[in-house]
Amino acid sequence: MESKKLNSYNHLTAKERDSISFPARHVLNKGLLMGEVLDFGCGFGKDVEVLKEEGIDIVGYDRHYFPSYPQKQFDTIICLYVLNVLMQEEQTRVLMEISQLLKPTGKAYFAVRRDITFEGFRTHKIHQKPTYQCNVILPFFSIFRNENCEIYEYKPFNIRLIDQLEDSCPFCNPSSDSILLAESATAFSIYDKFPVSNGHALIIPKRHVDNYFDLSFREQSACFFMLNYVKEIVQKKNDPDGFNIGINIGKSAGQTVDHVHIHLIPRYAGDVDNPIGGVREVIPEKKIYL
């Protein structure tokens, strides 16, 4: 990811502290740290250390300091002061990873700084390296805010109340039985309810729009960024030999749900007699063109 190369010193913003951070103390005092807890982006791990002493069942992950990636899902995830030092693509990746690491009925808490006056790269006072910082606004429920900090509560898209104006749309109000593969601020992914192959997934913008070409550039970009991420998940789990990617736009093109969705269809050697033509088979007599 290009932004990781540009922002290669973001880990230098981690602070060595003698006590628990304010947002960690806040969620602890509010009784929000339920079940198995993950501190995602834990830095040097002081919050993990103190919370363990408080009896919380918690582990920490940090790409630089505690790089053993979690191999299971958690009831609660905290991500404190991480997003502010990441560029937008990196932020989106973190949101998607946390949505995948969270149990279907779990909750995550994101703390972001509210005292940033300068956005962009600056030279770190101690390390003398370029580090990035920005303000972050998330489309989740805010449980706390002051002049220095805001804390958001995140619940998976398919178990929280969605757009009441579009309550008949299966993508505005996905079933709680749907398996959420990934979620970002703008889009989410679930398995297709009527899959044509193992691992058939959908990438869906959250805004109710029927035509892909009516999405904003930001929404289109978010969907295809997520498509790449979901492809990684499906590849790892199902090990397909290839993929078809498709969007149905309009009834004449076969669209049956009036909410944009991108199909990611894994393909397997031998799943059809002759795969030549791929997506051209939407018009069968045009499939063969050699």
TrEMBL record:
It holds the Pfam family HIT. A motif (Histidine triad motif) lies at residues 259-263. One of its GO terms (molecular function) is catalytic activity. Residues 167-274 form the HIT domain. SUPFAM superfamilies: HIT-like, S-adenosyl-L-methionine-dependent methyltransferases. PROSITE patterns: HIT_1, HIT_2. This is HIT domain-containing protein. The lineage of its organism: Bacteria, Pseudomonadati, Bacteroidota, Cytophagia, Cytophagales.
